[in-house]
Amino acid sequence: MNTMENKIIKSKKAQVSLEFSFLFLAILLASIITISHFLSQNFTKDDKVISDVENAAKTAVILANSGYNGINPNVTLIYGGISWSGNKKNIYIYISPKSYITPEIKNFIVSYIYNVTKINQSEYNITVNP
């Protein structure tokens, strides 16, 4: 092979590689747009708030168990879960054992959730062990 044929072969390989890269980029972009559209259509602001509240509630229970802010529950508190009303504006946090959840612990958990998540207190009502 002479040098001219080598240049043509290398040029074709480079062009195929470039075309493949553009095709891959187009497919990737279309996938990202589709996923983004799906998520924006199926998850609302309220869903994000509930997720944030759940994470903050778990952290608040861990902090309460560690004696944070002078809280002494005398037992290990267990985060039991979260539920919400149909309109997702009333959020309920379940912690056990219920008999050891004092008003001080409830207030700490609710205050911690509002402070960390920065959600509007007049829009969302958080209750511990309803």
Quaternary assembly: single chain
Can you list the strand order of the major beta sheet?
Answer: 1-2-3
Shape: elongated
Using the 3D structure, state the CATH architecture of the largest domain: 2-Layer Sandwich
Q: What is the number of helical segments per DSSP (H or I, 4+ residues)?
A: 3
Order of helices and strands: HHEEHE
| CATH domain fold name of the largest domain | GMP Synthetase, Chain A, domain 3
Give the helix/strand layout.
Layout: H1 3-42, H2 45-65, E1 78-84, E2 90-96, H3 103-117, E3 125-128
Parallel strand pairs: 2-3
Antiparallel strand pairs: 1-2
Describe the structure.
The structure is a single chain. The chain has 130 residues and is of the alpha+beta class. The chain folds into two domains: 1-42; 45-128, GMP Synthetase, Chain A, domain 3. The protein is built from three helices and three strands. The chain has helices spanning 3-42, 45-65, 103-117; strands at 78-84, 90-96, 125-128. A hairpin with a 5-residue loop joins strand 1 and strand 2. Helix 2 (45-65) crosses helix 3 (103-117). It is elongated.
